[in-house]
Amino acid sequence: MNSGKLKQAAELIRKAKYAVAFTGAGISVESGIPPFRGENGLWNTTDPIFLEIEFFNKKPFQSWQKIKEIFYDKLGDAEPNIAHDILAKMEKRSFLETVITQNIDHLHQKAGSRHVYELHGTYTQLVCVNCSSEYDKSFADLNYLPPTCFVCKGILKPDIIFFNEPIPEFAKKRSFQEANKADVLIIIGTNAEVLPAAKIPQVAKENGAKIIEINIKPSHFTNTVTDIFLEMKATEAMKEIGELLYL
Ligand code: APR
Fold it and tell me: Domains, the chain, ranges and CATH?
């Protein structure tokens, strides 16, 4: 049922002048990282308040306890899956220009993608809320929470975007520029629930891009911007697309 659409998608990518991928939590589910919503969704069992910026500023210890449990104790062992790997191969073979991701798990870079914009930041960096010094996560001993800055003793925060926190200006600007340039946008594993990230496909569409969407179920994009909907797991669809592109 998907084979015709997979061939169509691969042909679009092969002929594309500027293909861009837009990814969400769904691409990392098969690397063992739960999504935020839907089946096994993190927000089904964890109160998102721990990732509210006001809560973090008021109760950094409690926020860090939960953040360590849901991210730092889990993401470190996660490995890229074939979907991440194929995107990296597509970039190497010039079938893909950029990955715009909402994910903080660093798996695109681990798979070898070089042009990656992280709209919601990355768990691999910590930043001082007082003097803005930045550290790789390996510099912090997360057995002592909250971690503090070596320069000013201020509290270190994961360099991820909390709820009610603006997204990084550079990543936002460059991501929307990429969406403007794309003639093919590949959406993989996102619910389109969070703005401004969810606007990326609309901007690409308005500029004439063809939209390919890979998701295990329809999303808000499917009946609005999507041209080819591949109702499949990210690893299954990307494995097929990789074969069709002879990667
Ligand atoms: N393959 C493809 N898609 C999948 C798979 C899979 N194996 N498993 C789940 N999905 C899809 C789900 O159907 C859903 O549409 O991935 C999507 C995951 O949605 P969310 O968990 O809402 O993740 P995302 O869209 O990335 O969330 C956006 O919300 O909480 C904030 O900052 C957080 O970056 C996150 C943002």
Answer: 1-33+80-120+166-247 (3.40.50.1220), 35-73+122-160 (3.30.1600.10)
